[in-house]
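Work Package 3 (structural annotation) set out to generate three-dimensional models for the target panel prioritized at the project kickoff. During this period the team completed the workflow that converts sequence records into discrete structure tokens, so that structures can be stored uniformly alongside our sequence database. As a representative example, we reproduce one entry of 270 residues exactly as it appears in the project archive.
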Amino acid sequence: MIKVIASDMDGTFLNERGTFDENRFQGELDRLAQKQMHFVSASSNHYQHLLKTFEHVSGPISYVCNNGALVVDERGVIVSEDIIDHLVLRKALDWMLKTSSFFGAEIILVGRNGTYCNLPSQSKRFKASKYFYENMQSAKDLRLVFDSIYKIDITWETGGVLERQNEFNHQFSGRLSATSSGMNGLDVMNAGVTKLTGIQPLLDDWRLSFDDVAAFGDNGNDFEMVNAAREGYAMKNAAQDLLVKVEHVTHLTNDEQGVQEQIDHYLNEE
């Protein structure tokens, strides 16, 4: 029986407007709590943004943030953190500055105390990115940021990410790992950090396993979580690189509340 529902946010739980049916989900959260089931928001987004996403509902939600680099449980307690070593971070930034395929990239460092971007604060791309990041600051030289960094976000306006992902992972094998995040971007965390590794300490606390989990995602950074779950789903609208690797696909898209429909299915199981 499914006891934990873990869902990616953008393109999965959230519709294309970045919203969800709050009234419906409040009822689902209430029923999940009654049945001692758990909901995990497993996202590449950072904690403050996820809290804002669910500010109009109340109930037990755990957060796997920054693709597993920060995990906060239902009580608001930090369960685990995975910080990028500053020397490794500097080497990655140095390498990107001199590698032609990374020229023109928007680079955001997601830290414990804030987020830091290499674009001017008046640029359109900076202002668009602020939707996803609280306390975002423009930094002339990201190598001079000394916050504790969970994740590097890299996005391009043009060109694909697969070759860039492979190039980065070849260069930093064993130290950092890049994975596709949607919106023509890459998420970079410490090697081995994924949404799967983020969910594991929550399961340990609950004395459960991935055999108790249903997971939902729409992109490459969801694969490990979806693949490990007892019932792992790619969204009907998922990126092709995930769809080709996952057995189960939802009947409905994110715009059709595909995850919430499946939550109701689990709640109605006897």
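Residues 4-81+193-267 form a domain with the Rossmann fold fold (CATH 3.40.50.1000).
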